[in-house]
Amino acid sequence: MNQVASQNTPRQKAIALVEEELVSSVVWFVRIRWLAGFGVLAATWFATAVLNVPLPAASLYAIGIAILLYNAIFHVVLQQLLRAKPLRISQFDYLTKAQIGLDWLAMTALIHFSGGVESPVIFYFFFHIIIAAILLSPRATLFFAAMATLLVSGTIWLECAGVLSHIHPFGAADAALHGNPVFIFGVIFFFTSATFVAAYFASTLSSRLLGKREAEVVVLSQQLERAYRRLETLYQAAQATSSTLELQQVLDRLVRSTTEAMGVQGCSIWLLDEKGTRLTLGAVHGLSKVFVKKGDLVLERNPLAREVLAGKVIAIGDVVTETRLQYHAEAIAEGIRSMLSARLITKRGPCGLIRAYSTERNRFTEEDAAFLSAIANQSSIAIENALAYQTLSKLDQMKSKFVLMVTHELRSPVSVVRSLLRTLSAGYAGSLTETQTDMAARAAPHGFLANAD
Amino acid sequence: MANEKILIIDDDDDLVYAMRLPLEAAGFKVLRAANGDEGLKKVKEVNPNLIILDVMMDSTTAGFQLSLTLRNPDPKSEYAAFSKIPILMLTAIHSTTPLRFGPDKDFLPVDAFIEKPIQPDTLVAQVRKLLKK
To answer: Of A198, A360, A378, B122, which is most buried by a Cβ count within 10 Å?
Structure first.
């Protein structure tokens, strides 16, 4: 029993979409039949009461009512099926086949009672064929097309052989036509061929359209998933910006999530040194130690790095044929075939670059370039924050050291003064007069001399 | 007890003055060196009975280094003969920081500490105590 596919892969999403369409087509089919039923009744009345065509009105009305009746049953069954969660597609398929089967019988009866081989109603079989071809698989369509031809040819033969009575809608003038073998053969031949041709065309076209639709959905789903993952990475990068001020942690997170979001081999961030002459590795993910240790990007010898720092997002489609790389051989040895680089820039100017590496050639598109730019912007902000924090920490440390130094510097002379005062007050410089004792006491902090330290 | 020699090694003239008065009044002979190098020379010259040493002089660790030099356990050190002289260390660390110093055989081989600013009576008492040992 095939359930509506779980919405996991793009292919499964596509299938689910197509099945949903089928279900809505079945609903439409049942609705249309109400029209058909009333149409039969109306046409019968018009033909017999107004045009006075010699048709067995009672039988025709009966067929019309029968159509309405079995459509009512289908309607109820359909509502039941629609209520099931999840929808069971195979049951909708059975329902469709049942409808078509009954329609076929109704059509055959209508044809018989409106003149058999002479009945113009034969033509109406064609749109039934077309509907069946759209709703059913090619095999089922073939089966029903064969059924249609069998039913119609069968009826004509039986009427010709006299087993079934023949109705003459156009009066006794064509009395013998229904027994005329050439006429019968002609009608049967053209009906059969037209049926199969119509079935084939409708079947082919509809499966082509559906197939195309399915393929489109798969592609769109994949694109959507990619876009979603990139959005997630951007969000995570923004989170990284605000969640940690540890520069190394920020850089490590950025290279890892960029690698994953873009689905590439690896990613690296390089930071410009203070003199602005070389880029040293800030963080890397997905590349071997050998490649990582290859060395700094020296701007003088690296035209690519210079161009990126100037502001261009540069994609290298094929590393093998590229001339602007400083570490050409090392890149090839690592298995890298294409690269994408964007610059990192803070308020003080360019501060480095971020680079994605792939083992496929020509991997990076405009879309990738736009994405890496966005990541680069987020990274720049994160780096700026982390650096500001570092500076702040250093300044804080310096301040503490300074305060400590000053405190010590101040205390030394003060303690000397106090030592002298104590010696003086203790009388070692000669005994003191009252005034002198008083003065010494005032010079010392209140209560100090009384302390027995 | 009379004429026992006390060598004060300290770069602060005024502090030395503040200490000299009570010590001389107690009957000790007070000699002075202004820095670590001078101090070591004077130790050899004078062979004092007690050394009063400031923790920080021209550099933050001058006092420590001097005490380590004097108390070098190597018997061939030039100060071996002087390694038994009691050392009294002056410090302001206890009053200005939450740090606490204690004499340590390996890192701070002194006999006692005394805090700055000095209380003259305490100083004399401490000196007497160390000399008695």
So the answer is: A378
pLDDT tens digits for B35-83? 888 888 888 898 899 999 887 777 667 777 888 888 887 878 788 888 8
The domain of B123 spans: 5-132
| CA torsion angle B111 B115 B117 B118 (round to 10) | -40
Tell me which chain B residues have a C-beta less than 8 angstroms from the C-beta of A411: 92, 95-96
* Nearest chain A Cα distance for residue B117, angstroms: 5
- The three-class DSSP label of residue B68 is helix
What is the chain A residue with the closest CA to B22?
A428
ipTM over 0.85: no
How far is it, in rounded angstroms, from Cα B31 to Cα B20? 9
> Is A250 in contact with A256 (CB distance < 8 Å)?
no
pTM of the entire predicted model: 0.46
Inter-chain residue contact A426 with B120, CB threshold 8 Å: yes
Distance CA B107, CA A380 (A): 49
Both tokens of A356, joined, read: 């994605």
What domains, with CATH codes, occur in chain A? 10-222 (no CATH), 245-393 (3.30.450.40)
Eight-state DSSP code of residue A360: S
Structure tokens at A281: 């590795």
